[in-house]
Write a structure and sequence with these properties.
Length: 578
């Protein structure tokens, strides 16, 4: 027995060491990509300066600007959804490989997207026509603000799927496609819809940065609501800001009524429960209209159902049943070996280029980066504390009180989707002249940009608590405190973890726009690593930009590894709904 325990612990230590090395290689590879892109950006920065056409502040231009922005958001969301499903499924499929993939996702999520934007911009414009390159860079930035929380949500739903349902899918010998359609997608639907709403809110948050950006002598602008609002903020035109925010709110309301509320009403069928709920389910006038439409029903019966049957039949004939579960391992193939060699090559290239840039950074700059990191960390922790303090009770109230949810859900969705960067100049007018006003404004903008990740995940978790468990708590006569301790908090724990990880990443990213602000022709700067990144970006100081970005990535990744990953493992092992 003693020898078997030694062998087990030795094997476990070997697997842990192996994962640490793999994570280190992927981390270096990501930094390698960043360093190579920064080198390309530095090269392209020597090209003739680009001065883009000013965005029109005429109100009549707002409809076409809204169409442009909506198109970019939609393309980025489609890419984010595909990425979340593919990447999250790969991570959930293998317990050992999933640790590496989630570690890579931690690093990707920790990359400050606003410091990465000038790199992407200058890289694309170095090889592509300017307008196409800027459009691709804009969509890439919006994608990075949408994809990570959706991938976390999909992964969380897969690893917490009840064991009996996974065993049933294996018993019925479902192939990969049928398992996806019958088990995986329904299990993730509620969480995925709420995180999709949050992803759109995150996209709107960074829309201003995605459509107008200045790097040294290069001025990039795209027609859209984001560039309109940024142009109005730079000019101090409050009337134009209000018009832009008004059109943006109108677009958000339309999306809520025509897409998100119908999807929430439709997703009620996927709630996991042994008994039927006795409450009025989420309703939508547009969803009811679609259900009552003879044309829609005809299209469903004549086109959609036969098409899905043909797809099911095709995969049944061409796919063999595969064992289900998260413990299976993906066998090594030539493709995986080639990928590993490519990762090593990129990591070495990153070290070669990155070290050269980092050697240009002086000791005083590194000390400033350290002070800025500490200041930003304090702001992030404060924003997270405030977010949890109010989103937990409010999220449970909205997710469990269905009558109240009918009124509050649309309000919350609209409030979350209004980009804080659009209304931030209005707050600055009142805070900039008071003591520590910019620091307060920075925490406020972090809070406005991150609290919704927690709130939406908590609402999704509270609304998916099975009715039979709530009835059992009522029959046992549990007090409010005991109900929270034994039912609500354990059921919400995986959702809170998912929301907190993405909220923390969002807070770090928000520091770049909250600590370095241009308002009314004046530049305002608070102490923080986000301000260093924004300032070095504006000045085209790529060595300082790389140093500050790497520091932020290492800090966020370390927090994820030392804290959030352990909490995620606790959610998987102790708080799965069985």
């Amino acid at each position: 027995m003693g020898n078997s325990q030694k062998i087990f612990f030795k094997s476990e230590k070997y697997q842990t060491d192996k994962h640490i090395w793999l994570e280190a290689m992927f981390f270096l590879a990501i930094l390698g990509v960043l360093a190579v892109c920064l080198w390309l950006a530095a090269y392209s920065s020597h090209i003739a300066p680009i001065t883009a056409k000013e965005t029109s502040l005429e109100v009549t231009a707002l409809p076409i600007y809204a169409a442009y922005s909506l198109g970019r958001m939609m393309l980025a969301y489609i890419l984010s959804l595909l990425f979340a499903i593919v990447y999250g499924s790969m991570a959930a499929r293998s317990r050992q490989g999933g640790k590496v993939l989630m570690a890579v996702l931690d690093v990707l999520q920790s990359v400050p997207i606003l410091s990465f934007l000038p790199v992407v911009l200058l890289t694309f414009t170095a090889f592509l026509p300017q307008r196409l390159g800027v459009e691709m860079a804009s969509i890439t930035l919006i994608f990075t603000s949408q994809a990570w929380n959706m991938a976390y949500a999909w992964y969380q739903s897969q690893i917490t799927t009840p064991k009996e349902l996974r065993e049933a899918s294996a018993t019925f010998r479902l192939n990969t496609w049928m398992c996806f359609r019958i088990l995986k997608m329904p299990s993730a639907t509620i969480s995925l819809i709420w995180n999709s709403i949050m992803s759109w809110a995150g996209g709107w948050f960074f829309l201003m940065a995605a459509e107008i950006f200045t790097v040294g002598d290069h001025d990039f602008r795209l027609p859209g609501l984001g560039s309109f609002l940024q142009q109005a903020a730079d000019a101090g035109d409050i009337e134009a800001i209000l018009w832009g925010v008004g059109v943006l709110i109108a677009v958000i309301i339309a999306l809520d009524q025509l897409i998100w509320r119908p999807l929430l009403a439709w997703s009620e069928r996927f709630k996991l429960s042994m008994v039927a709920d006795d409450h009025d389910p989420p309703s939508s006038w547009f969803y009811d209209l679609l259900q009552a439409s003879k044309l829609v029903n005809w299209l469903k019966v004549r086109l959609l159902l036969p098409f899905m049957e043909k797809i099911d039949l095709f995969f049944i004939q061409h796919q063999k049943p595969s064992p289900q579960g998260v413990d299976q391992e993906v066998q090594s193939t030539w493709g995986s070996r080639l990928t590993f060699v490519l990762v090593i090559a990129i990591a070495l290239a990153g070290l070669w280029n990155g070290i050269g840039l980092l050697l240009e950074v002086g000791l005083d700059d590194w000390l400033d980066i350290g002070k800025g990191l500490l200041a930003t960390l304090i702001r992030v922790m404060l924003a997270m504390f405030i977010s949890v303090a109010w989103t937990l009770p409010v999220g449970v109230l909205i997710g469990t009180n269905y009558r109240l949810a009918k009124f509050l859900q649309p309000v919350v969705q609209i409030a979350a989707s209004v980009p804080a960067t659009a209304i931030f100049p209005i707050f600055l007018m009142f805070l900039v002249n008071i003591a520590y006003g910019l620091d307060l404004a920075a925490v406020l903008l972090m809070l406005l940009g991150t609290q919704w990740y927690l709130l939406f995940n908590i609402i999704a978790g509270a609304s998916s608590i099975p009715r039979d468990l709530k009835d059992t708590a009522t029959l046992l006569g549990l007090s409010t405190w005991m109900r929270w301790r034994t039912l609500i908090l354990p059921a919400l724990f995986p959702f809170i973890v998912t929301g907190a990880i993405t909220a923390a990443g969002g807070a770090w990213n928000a520091s770049i726009v909250s600590e370095y602000v241009n308002f009314g022709g004046e530049t305002l700067m608070a102490t923080g690593i986000g301000a260093i990144i924004a300032k070095s970006t504006a000045e085209g100081n790529f060595s300082l930009l790389l140093a500050a970005t790497i520091t932020m990535i290492v800090a966020v990744a370390a927090i994820n590894v030392l804290f959030w990953r352990r909490v995620y493992r606790l959610a998987e092992e102790r708080f799965r709904m069985e």
